[in-house]
Amino acid sequence: MEKKEIVKILNEIGLLLELKGENPFKSRAYYNAARIIELLDEDIETIVKEDRLKDIKGIGEALNKKITELVLTGKLKYYEDLKASIPEGLIDMLKIPGLGPKRIRTIYEQLNITSVRELEYACLENRLLDLPGFGKKMQNNILKGIQFIKQFSSHFLYSEAYSQAVDYKEYLDAANVAKKTEIAGSLRRKKEIVKDIDILSASNSPNTVIDTFIKYPKVKEIVEKGDTKSSVILEDGIGVDLRVIKEYQFPYALHHFTGSKEHNTAMRHRAKKMGIKMNEYGIFKGEELIKCLNEEEIFFNLGLSFIPPELRENMGEIEAAEKGTIPNLVDNSDLKGILHVHTRYSDGTNSLKELVEATRNLGYSYLGVSDHSKSAYYANGLNEEQLFEQWKEIDNLNQIYNDFRIFKGIESDILPDGSLDFEDEILEKFDFVIASVHSNFNLNKQEMTERIIKALTNKYTTILGHPTGRLLLARNGYDIDMEKIIEIASSHGKIIEINSNPYRLDLDWRYIKYAKEKNVIFAICPDAHNIEGLSHITYGIGIAKKGWLEAKDVINTLDIESISKFLKDLKQ
DNA sequence: GCCGTTTTCGGCCCGACTGTTTTCAGTCG
């Protein structure tokens, strides 16, 4: 059984136990185990077969037995029984804001309601009013919550949320009501998908800040308004939380509200072991505050070097900070050039010359052009004749600039049988070849993996484009064995793309870290279809950071001479 | 259900807000 599936089942058991009203620490043990399995670099089946599961901290006798049963038989009786004992609809109810396991249990036990739709009717009939702990307001909120989840999906792309957050922050800054305001939460950690926007302000008069906060013109609904905290929903459905603290508390609160929850939990455990209490208001030795002017000093007081927000996912960053091995993360300024753009020759909207000028004006020293190949008829892919025409134009432009170089590339479709889209005599003339899947997504896992591996091991392939093929919030990636593909990329010296398009952000950062450990090299590419698209590269940088990448791991941090040589050597 | 320099039981991270109460439970982050 697949790791992903095991993780899902363990999490679901945790949830079901909560709904059953079991010991909360018991369900936490399952959540914890799910996370441990999720972060395993090694193949779970191997671990189980070698009976090493029980050696992992957090997996005891009972979980060892259950996970082993799952991995070996693909089933778990305990889970089946548990699931059968609880109506499915109760899990859906958890999506309603303000409803947690306890209240759902009450609703189920007292009113025998088993689905969101039934719950909605019950609210309209005022049947919740008589339940213990419920009242008119609660019933209204549940109704509103049901409307809300009907109307909006609960997640947003990083790029969308980030631009909303920046606008909100600018509004607050302009109002000049707080001494400091920062965007925190998953946005600060640059997660590819976020649930809401977290904003943190420092002020001695929090009410003024909150009053200003809720008057933001784009606010559609005020969900909560307290003395230090407020939540609103914006017109486009995204929720925004504001916390106001005192100025001296700002670094502690910034760390706290940046998260992740898992990182914070691990940090508090560490602090506790050192006799330090840690919360959003400070770190304390007994009652006494340990003064910190910034996050660096907080980490320092816990015996750690600074951990960049992008790494705070409890994926080994605390251990690395303890050892002083936090990587010097790649940054926008490290990039010397751009690869993977589309021009008007295929489905781009700017001319080659316009893109070259734009790239040059942004301070880069080279541009790798990669229009679609001939099979991509939907994207106006280039045939040989059009290709020769483009090469001629590139040659001419390369004569004009002495400080800038255009590389001839292609984004070649990976055909269903794994072959590339041109004959070898054409392929060998490119400076670089990006191989990407754009069709026949529904092959089974083995077929798809073999297809991609065949393309990847093609002599002329330089870069594997958007490796999982996912479209965030819209389409899951193809069914492939990514570990295997990463291993092949590593052993064949092939580059893996970090596609910076905000809908893709592909390769996923969780795999990037894994691939880096296998010595894979990356290219951070905008996949731009117009001049504005060049700026997407900054999202790719965020994801590269989350994958622990340094400049040396990224091919387009090389200067013109080095990358020319690198690309030439790859073809040998 | 897990864990152990307090080791086989008794803890397990912490605080704000809301809505319900009349001192607190539940939810959320």
UniProtKB/TrEMBL annotation:
<dbReference type="Pfam" id="PF14520">
    <property type="entry name" value="HHH_5"/>
</dbReference>
<dbReference type="InterPro" id="IPR022311">
    <property type="entry name" value="PolX-like"/>
</dbReference>
<dbReference type="InterPro" id="IPR037160">
    <property type="entry name" value="DNA_Pol_thumb_sf"/>
</dbReference>
<protein>
    <recommendedName>
        <fullName>DNA polymerase beta</fullName>
        <ecNumber>2.7.7.7</ecNumber>
        <ecNumber>4.2.99.18</ecNumber>
    </recommendedName>
</protein>
<dbReference type="InterPro" id="IPR003583">
    <property type="entry name" value="Hlx-hairpin-Hlx_DNA-bd_motif"/>
</dbReference>
<dbReference type="GO" id="GO:0006281">
    <property type="term" value="P:DNA repair"/>
</dbReference>
<dbReference type="InterPro" id="IPR047967">
    <property type="entry name" value="PolX_PHP"/>
</dbReference>
<keyword id="KW-0239">DNA-directed DNA polymerase</keyword>
<keyword id="KW-0832">Ubl conjugation</keyword>
<dbReference type="Pfam" id="PF14716">
    <property type="entry name" value="HHH_8"/>
</dbReference>
<dbReference type="InterPro" id="IPR050243">
    <property type="entry name" value="PHP_phosphatase"/>
</dbReference>
<dbReference type="Pfam" id="PF14791">
    <property type="entry name" value="DNA_pol_B_thumb"/>
</dbReference>
<keyword id="KW-0237">DNA synthesis</keyword>
<dbReference type="InterPro" id="IPR029398">
    <property type="entry name" value="PolB_thumb"/>
</dbReference>
<dbReference type="InterPro" id="IPR002008">
    <property type="entry name" value="DNA_pol_X_beta-like"/>
</dbReference>
<keyword id="KW-0488">Methylation</keyword>
<dbReference type="InterPro" id="IPR016195">
    <property type="entry name" value="Pol/histidinol_Pase-like"/>
</dbReference>
<feature type="domain" description="Helix-hairpin-helix DNA-binding motif class 1">
    <location>
        <begin position="91"/>
        <end position="110"/>
    </location>
</feature>
<keyword id="KW-0227">DNA damage</keyword>
<feature type="domain" description="Helix-hairpin-helix DNA-binding motif class 1">
    <location>
        <begin position="51"/>
        <end position="70"/>
    </location>
</feature>
<dbReference type="InterPro" id="IPR043519">
    <property type="entry name" value="NT_sf"/>
</dbReference>
<dbReference type="InterPro" id="IPR004013">
    <property type="entry name" value="PHP_dom"/>
</dbReference>
<feature type="domain" description="Polymerase/histidinol phosphatase N-terminal">
    <location>
        <begin position="337"/>
        <end position="416"/>
    </location>
</feature>
<dbReference type="GO" id="GO:0004527">
    <property type="term" value="F:exonuclease activity"/>
</dbReference>
<keyword id="KW-0915">Sodium</keyword>
<dbReference type="Pfam" id="PF02811">
    <property type="entry name" value="PHP"/>
</dbReference>
<dbReference type="InterPro" id="IPR010996">
    <property type="entry name" value="HHH_MUS81"/>
</dbReference>
<keyword id="KW-0808">Transferase</keyword>
<dbReference type="GO" id="GO:0008270">
    <property type="term" value="F:zinc ion binding"/>
</dbReference>
<feature type="domain" description="DNA-directed DNA polymerase X">
    <location>
        <begin position="1"/>
        <end position="313"/>
    </location>
</feature>
<dbReference type="GO" id="GO:0005829">
    <property type="term" value="C:cytosol"/>
</dbReference>
<dbReference type="GO" id="GO:0003887">
    <property type="term" value="F:DNA-directed DNA polymerase activity"/>
</dbReference>
<dbReference type="GO" id="GO:0051575">
    <property type="term" value="F:5'-deoxyribose-5-phosphate lyase activity"/>
</dbReference>
<dbReference type="InterPro" id="IPR002054">
    <property type="entry name" value="DNA-dir_DNA_pol_X"/>
</dbReference>
<feature type="domain" description="Helix-hairpin-helix DNA-binding motif class 1">
    <location>
        <begin position="126"/>
        <end position="145"/>
    </location>
</feature>
<keyword id="KW-0540">Nuclease</keyword>
<keyword id="KW-0234">DNA repair</keyword>
<keyword id="KW-0548">Nucleotidyltransferase</keyword>
<keyword id="KW-0378">Hydrolase</keyword>
<dbReference type="GO" id="GO:0003677">
    <property type="term" value="F:DNA binding"/>
</dbReference>
<dbReference type="InterPro" id="IPR027421">
    <property type="entry name" value="DNA_pol_lamdba_lyase_dom_sf"/>
</dbReference>
<dbReference type="InterPro" id="IPR003141">
    <property type="entry name" value="Pol/His_phosphatase_N"/>
</dbReference>
